[in-house]
Write a structure and sequence with these properties.
This protein has 196 residues and is mainly beta. Helices cover 2% and strands 40% of the residues. Strands 3-10-11-12-13-14 form a six-stranded antiparallel β-sheet, with no helix packed on it. The termini are far apart. About 6% of the residues have low confidence. The structure holds zinc ion (ZN).
């Protein structure tokens, strides 16, 4: 048996204020499990993405999360709200990105350059989202990602990595033009922040 207190697992630098990777601390061999807390404007993921082999289930414990996924025609996106006490499952190959859009003051979907930090899309009265994500098998397989690039436009292919100038940060970089599309760091309060 393995037993952990979630609050004692290290916070990982992620697009969520808090993300505690329970997989390793529980010694999981076949399933991934992560605990998330999303401040208003935060995302579960660095980019719109899919997993080649891993199916993923999110259980929302508190707040309401919003997922972007392909619409039925496959040429646009739809959104699905998942409230407290609800769960959602994404099969392998389904592209998605989950957000905490609570407190947003307009209906336009944010692009990656302003979705989190733009004053027009954030509000101090937004509610935090707490959720668990469970994925199996442990390996993702290929995980193609895309985000909105200020140079190339929407849905540009991106890669997630560590920048040379700050190995503690995580960045997403446009594969086509090299522009840094997003950057996340550990803030002074111990939670993660998006600064690009
Ligand atoms: Zn680009």
């Amino acid at each position: 048996m393995e037993h952990v207190a979630i609050g004692e697992v290290d916070n990982s630098v992620q697009p969520a204020a808090v993300m505690r990777q329970l997989t390793e601390s529980l010694g999981c061999s076949d399933v991934a499990i992560n605990y998330y807390e999303l401040a208003p404007g935060d995302s579960f993921a660095f980019a719109y993405h899919e997993h080649e082999v891993q199916e993923e289930i999110f259980v929302v414990l508190e707040g309401t999360a919003t997922w972007e996924l392909a619409d039925e025609d496959g040429d646009g996106r739809q959104t699905v709200e998942v409230g407290p006490g609800e769960a959602v499952r994404f099969p392998p190959g389904e592209r998605q990105r989950g957000w905490n859009w609570s407190g947003r003051t307009n209906d336009t979907e944010p692009d990656d350059s302003e979705g989190r930090d733009g004053d027009d899309t954030r509000s101090s009265d937004g509610q935090r989202v707490r959720a668990l994500a469970v994925g199996a098998p442990l390996a993702y397989g290929d995980q193609p990602k895309s985000a909105d690039c200020p140079e190339c436009g929407p849905d540009a292919p991106v890669t997630v990595g560590r920048p040379d100038d700050d190995p503690a940060a995580v960045v997403t970089t446009c594969d086509d033009c090299g522009t840094e599309v997003g950057r996340w760091v550990r803030g002074e309060n111990g939670e993660n922040e998006r600064i690009v």
